[in-house]
Amino acid sequence: MPTGRQLPGLVDDEPACSIERSLQILGERWSLLVLREVFAGRHKFAEIQSSLGIASNLLSARLKLLVESGVLDTQTYQEPGSRPRQSYHLTAAGSDLLVVLGALQQWGDRHRPRPSGPSALRRVRSTGRPVHVGFLDDEGREVPANEVTMLADRSAKA
Q1: What would the pLDDT profile of 3-44 be if each residue is shown by its tens digit?
Q2: pLDDT in tens, 44-99
Q3: Which of 6, 37, 72, 142 is deepest in the core (most CB within 10 A)?
Q4: Which residues contact 59 (CB under 8 A, 6 or more apart)?
Q5: What is the crossing angle of helices 29-39 and 18-26, to 10°?
Q6: Residue 104 to residues 33, 65, 92, 98, 100: CA-CA distances in angstroms?
Q7: Angle between helical axes of 29-39 and 98-111 (0-180°, round to 10)
Q8: Phi-psi region at 86: left, alpha or beta (left = phi > 0; alpha = psi -120 to 50)
Q9: Other beta carbons within 10 Å of 133
Q10: Which domain holds residue 33?
């Protein structure tokens, strides 16, 4: 599979749809859950695995894809008496996915709520005020979702 890191633009056999291209990397549920853990400050394989309860082969595959796709970078660390290992950290592309995770969380809180309430809250770090995910126009004003349309770019190859 071509990766964003290897190729700066579209390749002939890549889908024209950016949603489809994104799902090639993020469409498997463990990918987004791994990212949730990294956003939460868990960077070591064992920390992520323990938190998620994921099989090591699945976690290895997800981390490999996220690194190859430029979503995560690795850094080598070594615990005393142990061999060197890799920790996983967000790249700029990975950091941009916070809004995606926030949108999924917001949707789940609204349409699949838990009786006990949300497991996490979205807040402004400096003030603690609640935030929500939404659309902004090119001047920074919020636009209601029912006013947004996604138009096909007729110049894009299908």
Answers
A1: 444 444 555 678 888 999 999 999 999 999 999 999 999 999
A2: 999 999 999 999 999 999 999 999 999 999 999 999 999 999 999 999 999 999 99
A3: 72
A4: 30, 34, 45, 48, 49, 52
A5: 70
A6: 11, 21, 20, 10, 6
A7: 110
A8: beta
A9: 15
A10: 18-147
Instruction: Answer whether residue 103 is part of any domain.
Output: yes
Q: What is the DSSP string of 113-127?
A: --TT--SS--B-TTT
Residue 28: inside a domain: yes
Q: Is residue 34 part of a domain?
A: yes
Residue 127, CA distances (Å) to 83, 112, 120, 131 in order? 42, 28, 17, 11
User: Which tokens hold the place of 27?
Assistant: 């469409």
Inter-residue contact 94 to 72 (CB < 8 Å): yes
Q: Does residue 158 form part of some domain?
A: no
- Joined together, the tokens standing for residue 44 give 């070591």
Q: How many domains does the chain have?
A: 1
CATH number of the domain residue 37 falls in? 1.10.10.10
